[in-house]
Amino acid sequence: MFTIDWDARYRDGETPWEKGMAHPALPFFIESHPAFFEGKPRLFHPGCGYGRDAAHLAPLCREITALDIAEEAITNAKNLYPALENIRWEQGDLFTWDEPEHYDLVWEHTCFCAITPSYRAAYVRAIHTLLKPGGLLLGIFFLTPDHPIGEGPPFRVSRDQLNHFFGKDFELIEDIPNPPTYDGREDTETIMIWRKRP
Ligand SMILES: C[S@@+](CC[C@H](N)C(=O)[O-])C[C@H]1O[C@@H](n2cnc3c(N)ncnc32)[C@H](O)[C@@H]1O
Q1: Cα dihedral 168, 60, 76, 140 sign
Q2: Are 41 and 59 in contact (CB under 8 A)?
Q3: CA of 40 to the centre of ligand 1 (A)
């Protein structure tokens, strides 16, 4: 096992994932799935980086917890979006975050592919624990099935792996391949909607 110094990546500006805007799939997803945001859900967003997606989702949610292990990312997010009072910006570790069954929704965007692969089962357990019964994991998943094994981040992710890791504790509700995306990420992503099994 090796660890990634995420804070150093931000301090050194080694952040190729940071595009200065929310993921382009997010407006498309919100427009095509308005029911998920009726009643203003409580949403958890792990690995939020500079908080672009959280800021886009804020008007639709009662409360957002935007979590990142990198202090530098959270400091920047707070500076970028000081006026969004329903976002709780938190520096912390997803794997020890302790708010069981608090959230209606989780928004995933390049956190699953970024963590060390030996932590994937722990990621699934953490998300399952955070969601209320019947809660939904909404994710834009980066698919890199030909990526060399062990090299990353991002680490190799395939559809089979996603089904393997999430399929036991979550039910796949919808899979939307090739949604709108950033320049250069065409044909590499899919949106998946997973419902927590009891
Ligand atoms: C590839 S970046 C994506 C950031 C953001 N989602 C984006 O697309 O701009 C992965 C993020 O996950 C964060 N991260 C990695 N491990 C984490 C953990 N255990 N708990 C919380 N955040 C973590 C990193 O600090 C980093 O900001």
Answers
A1: positive
A2: no
A3: 25
Q: Which residues line ligand 1 (CB under 6 A)?
A: 6, 17-18, 46-49, 67-70, 73, 93-95, 109-111, 114-115, 153
Specify if 62 maps to a domain: yes
Report yes or no on 135 lying in a domain: yes
Write down the pTM of the prediction: 0.97
Residue 17 is classified by DSSP as: T
pLDDT in tens, 54-89: 999 999 999 999 999 999 999 999 999 999 999 999
Residue-wise pLDDT for 159-181, tens only, equals 999 999 999 999 999 999 999 99
The answer to the question of residue 8 being in a domain is no
What ligand 1 atom has the least distance to the C-alpha of 45? Answer: 6
Beta-strand ranges (E) seen in 69-181 are: 87-91, 103-109, 131-142, 170-177
